[in-house]
């Protein structure tokens, strides 16, 4: 059994993160001492690492809760998990498209501006942003 500080170190997270995961019902202590200190087992360390890996893949804590529920459900199958992974992948692809569009828009704005010592009221970037806002308002 591990204290919250020890399990946090083993799992590579902070004690506050563990408390948050506990609040979100993603982990729970195996027991408590008479003084009320939380004690965690090896399964908690394993679960925290699972959570961190899933987050690295783009899953939210809500998604992870669902994945953990699917993992324990007798009626669930691998296809259920695969569907979640596909949905996440599509969401990430959409975000990438949006980020690429933003990057292109910024490239255009940067090309319009040579920089230098001109006053900001003559800045082509600010002017373009200002004009776009006034066109949207019409």
Automatic annotation (TrEMBL):
- Name the InterPro entries on file: DNA-bd_dom_put_sf, MerR-type_HTH_dom, MerR_fam
The residue ranges of the HTH merR-type domain are 1-70
Provide the coiled-coil residue spans.
Answer: none
| UniProt KW keywords | DNA-binding
Reply yes or no: does the keyword RNA-binding apply. no
- Answer yes or no on keyword ATP-binding: no
Gene that encodes the chain:
zntR
Pfam family for this entry, one? MerR_1
Output this protein's name.
Heavy metal-responsive transcriptional regulator
């Amino acid at each position: 059994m591990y204290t919250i500080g020890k399990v946090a170190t083993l799992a590579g997270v902070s004690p506050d993160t563990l408390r948050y995961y506990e609040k979100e019902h993603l982990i729970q202590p195996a027991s408590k001492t008479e003084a009320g200190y939380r004690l965690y087992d090896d399964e908690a360390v394993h679960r925290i690492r699972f959570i961190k890996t899933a987050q690295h893949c783009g899953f939210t804590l809500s998604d992870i809760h669902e994945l953990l529920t699917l993992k324990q459900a007798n009626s669930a199958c691998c296809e259920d998990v695969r569907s979640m992974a596909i949905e996440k992948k599509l969401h990430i692809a959409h975000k990438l498209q949006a980020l690429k569009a933003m990057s292109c828009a910024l490239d255009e704005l940067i090309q319009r501006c040579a920089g230098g010592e001109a006053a900001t009221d003559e800045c082509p970037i600010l002017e373009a942003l200002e004009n776009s806002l006034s066109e949207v308002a019409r």
